[in-house]
């Protein structure tokens, strides 16, 4: 039997709360994937994000020439999106993809009507909404409206519309209303929905409940009631069921989706990395030396003394999720490391840990030879402590630690490897589980973690740091080389194939839907 030809989209519309809005890991996922998307679909990729004015302009470059005809049409002719201010330009990341930023304030008066529609059509329970639910859902709805407008502009004649292959990809529950809008108003567009972490899974873990020991006994709807997550869980669950293709980033989260959302994913789409972010050759060596000197100087200023040039620089970073990100076990590991060094009969080098966690504002501390410097800022180059970006500092570290309890993928250890910095992570991180299957494991230590082995993990980390500190120069170079090798296998050029499969799955379902609607008596094509 002949192999079926994969369907490829003519246009890809993708939306996230983090398009041109750097607030979390999804920004890294999308901004690094953009180059691969542009290479395969040049200027046929359009990202849709919220317009936060000057904040967005840090990464957005408005350009009236981009989609000029559409911009002119919606400006000078009455249309359903006339009340939604938009700006069109490019996202200032590798690949420079087209980006459309939009404001959704005009939809606030329609909020109740939109929620009634979502309940009637898709059983989304918005009645228990609170926090950021309203603005997220209204943004998603507005994004769907703008996508529909652009779709109709690009398929202005009947022939183009009949043969159109468009995919709309929504990331996380915050943009799920775009899925609902398009299914109801523009079913020709194939929809994809990616959950990067289930809301219920994250909430169970974050509330101190044992996620893994009792995993098979959890019911998502019941836990949503208990954890006051009814509306967010509802919108996420319904998007998973209504999208033409439902994806997530790792096998760990795929299990969550099946158990807590009652929906198996259609395909797993692991997160890759864009290597153009990493300096090469002499530039790499120069930036590493500059970073190390800056880290040493700032650490000395914070700790009130000179830090030796041969000190071991250890780093942890991420959101302020004390348990989920493993900050608690990292702190315990540093305390145990100090004790091990104190009782050691060897002369150990000084260890300085940089805790790069926004809003975790604590005074620096120094024990025997283990010190901690807290960096409570988003490292975007404008912080008062370093004035450098995260990548500018990451390159100067010797080793990183990301002992996550709840980590659907784990971009931070992947970034670390990409910058040739060996890392310690856990089996509960998607990246950790993936890296454990790779052959070059010298650059990545994956610690088995579960609900009940906190002390064991802390001891393991302390021992691994001590072991790394005692490695010969040759072995440290090998660890750095193998860390980079693992990152190389997670390059988007290797992982983008999963998105090709996802687009194919979505397009086939959408084409069948349109065919059934237009030719109800015709036999199935797929």
List the helices and strands and how they pair.
Elements lengths: L10 E5 L9 H16 L4 E6 L9 E3 L5 H9 L9 E6 L6 E5 L8 H12 L10 H22 L3 H6 L2 E6 L4 H10 L4 E6 L3 H8 L13 H7 L3 H13 L2 E4 L2 H10 L6 E2 L12 H23 L8 E6 L9 H16 L8 E6 L8 E3 L2 E5 L15 H5 L4 E4 L8 H8 L4 E4 L3 H6 L8 E4 L6 H16 L3 H17 L2 H27 L8
Parallel strand pairs: 1-2, 1-6, 2-5, 6-7, 7-8, 8-9, 10-11, 10-14, 11-13, 14-15, 15-16
Antiparallel strand pairs: 3-4, 4-5, 12-13
Rounded mean pLDDT is 93
The largest β sheet comes out as: 9 strands, mixed
DSSP strand content: 5-15%
Outline, from the CA principal axes?
globular
Number of helices: 18
Task: Count every beta strand, where a strand is a DSSP E run of 2 or more residues.
Answer: 16
Instruction: Give the strand order, joined by hyphens, for the main sheet.
Output: 3-4-5-2-1-6-7-8-9
Query: Which structural category fits the helices and strands?
Result: alpha/beta
Low-confidence residue ranges: 522-526
Distance between the termini: 15 Å
Radius of gyration based on Cα positions = 24 Å
Q: Assign a percent range to the helix content.
A: 40-55%
Structural account:
The protein has 526 residues and is α/β, with parallel strands linked by helices. 44% of the residues lie in helices and 14% in strands. The protein has 18 helices and 16 strands. The protein has helices spanning 25-40, 68-76, 111-122, 133-154, 158-163, 176-185, 199-206, 220-226, 230-242, 251-260, 281-303, 327-342, 390-394, 411-418, 430-435, 454-469, 473-489, 492-518, and strands at 11-15, 45-50, 60-62, 86-91, 98-102, 166-171, 190-195, 245-248, 267-268, 312-317, 351-356, 365-367, 370-374, 399-402, 423-426, 444-447. A nine-stranded mixed β-sheet has the order 3-4-5-2-1-6-7-8-9, sandwiched between helices. Helix 1 links the parallel strand 1 (11-15) and strand 2 (45-50). The chain is globular and about 80 Å long.
